[in-house]
Amino acid sequence: HELVRRYPGFASDMFLKRAFLFCYQLNRKLGWFKDSIDKLPVPADYQVPKMLEHFGCLKYKESLMNKIQAHTMIPKYSIEEVSIRGGTIMVCDRLAELTKWTKSDIDALLWLRRKECNKPFHLTITTDY
Predict the structure, then answer these.
(1) Which of 88, 106, 102, 91 is closest to 44 using CA atoms?
(2) Of 55, 57, 54, which is closest to residue 68 (Cα–Cα)?
């Protein structure tokens, strides 16, 4: 709550991606929030859904996939962009349940493997990612 209150840019995103990523990074580097980090959703950005789609965990509608492949801008907070980010959170939650891994570990694994996939990611003009 304090982070969001003191740094308004961390609260401008309805998914609080930057705020959650900050907490994830503190957990990874310093071990903070050990008992509560998994209560936070995965910081939904642009690379993680690309990787989830690549591994077959997330499926885009054909019309959305065509836009992504054509490098068409997806408007910020549009149904398509919110669906990508919301779907990312839901899939990562389910992966955590199935694998017994932490969401932080799933996020890190997908992010670190992002260069293994040369598929395009969705484009959205925003400072939230």
Answers:
(1) 88
(2) 54
